[in-house]
Amino acid sequence: MATLLLGVFLLFALINLGYYLAFFSFAGARDKENAAPAFPVSVIVCAKNEAENLNNFLPSILEQDYPDYEIILINDASVDNSLEVMEKYQALDGRIKIVDVENNEAFWANKKYALTLGIKKAKHDHLIFTDADCSPQSKNWLRRMAEKFSAENSIILGYGGYFRNKGSLLNKLIRFETLLTAIQYFAYARLGRPYMGVGRNLAYTSTQFYQQKGFANHLHLRSGDDDLFVNEAATANNTAICFHRESFTRSVPKQSFKKWFEQKRRHASIAKHYKSSDKLLLGLFYSSRLLFWLLFIILMAFQIYPQITLGAIGVLLVTESIVYFKAARKLEELDVVWLFPFLEVFLIFSQLAIFIANIFSKPTHWK
Fold this sequence. Notes:
Elements: H1 2-27, E1 41-47, H2 51-62, E2 69-76, H3 82-92, E3 96-101, H4 111-121, E4 126-131, E5 134-136, H5 141-146, E6 155-157, E7 160-162, H6 169-190, E8 202-205, H7 206-211, H8 227-233, E9 239-241, E10 249-251, H9 257-271, H10 276-301, H11 306-331, H12 340-360
Parallel strand pairs: 1-2, 1-4, 2-3, 6-9, 7-10
Antiparallel strand pairs: 4-8, 5-10, 6-8
GO molecular function: glycosyltransferase activity
Protein name: Glycosyltransferase
Domain Glycosyltransferase 2-like: 42-176
């Protein structure tokens, strides 16, 4: 029995090692600067009850150093004064167009419906998306994202991080989870298997959108306007990644564990609609991590081949630390790396709790 436990533990260790070696395809990559794009772009921001965030972050979009762009502001049936804030900025800047969406009984509280109306309003083919609570981290955000478009590349995956709160452990957990997610979707895209993107920093062409028939195949799902669209439309030939430091956006993270937990429940409920091969890859990664740590605890508690057990976890942790350090340095998240063993274990068991919670009840969705 002891030998069997050790064998299973080593199997999961090898599976995990394989994943992190694959993740190195992003961690060891360099983001090359391309020629400056000459085409105009449409920036699309969907807001629902985001008056304060629009006041705080819209100026950072208006200040972009890009020669030709418009901003489509979508007021998704807000009950605060989001529309008034939009109209205030529109009066100051003629590049702003407003789409005022009223609740539709057939598409009640459906962000995809609102986004579709915004995309139809855009006059340019190249679309760049972000959220109302997001702030570009440089005046070259649009330039860096747009330069990744080409005759072949119609989908661009960017990095949308969160603002740092030095004294908050929850903040580090949220940012570590965001870092790990980014490592995965960047690495898989580089390996020719793009499977998701984040609406905080995402770009695609309207041509691609209409060829895909928009969100038609998952319009009945309230979430997934970003990752489900990418999962359905992205291929090895039409997708590029952008991780230049000037291309990042950051947004306000959840301030309580309960709100973050509900947010991750929503994300997990949408992931079950990914392609089967993607669900298999992601499911194997998280299940193998969970079983690896559980078996490690059992083996050490009963002192079963402790030298081999410690040696295996040592090799894996060294490999992980290299991947996390290199990726975090690229994405400017280095402060979370030093706690990665603790954060990773906490995240793994949080994922298990999310899976169990979603079995018994449905998560809430778009505001």
